[in-house]
Amino acid sequence: MKKIYLAEDDIDDQEIFREIIDALDHGIQLTIFHNGEELIKALNVLPNDELPDLLLLDQNMPRLKGSETIQQIRSEPRYKPLPVAIYTTYHDANFARLCKEEGIELFQKPDTFDELSKLIHRLVAMYIK
Length: 129
What we know:
Layout: E1 2-7, H1 11-24, E2 28-33, H2 36-44, E3 54-58, H3 66-74, E4 84-88, H4 93-101, E5 105-108, H5 113-127
């Protein structure tokens, strides 16, 4: 089973992600965390062969923002191969540069359900083989 770890503090967005992933019927297990700190704690207890296939982060979260979560994840050698994507309403040229340098896909958070569904389909096609 393929696994996506989502760090998202907005309950409505969490529910929408779950609905879209469930509708895909690709056998994808979506695990949701309310912030980057929770996601990192979960990663730390997993053996290498159980790491997720994709980490999807919101930028603006309590405790650890997406960028701070990335820095911690990338500092651990065993997490470097993990694909990471950030979706956000946050616009900042320095942040976009950081993402590009780290090989992280940066997506603007869509305004509608249909646009978000298209984005999730695209992410699944890119990262979940």
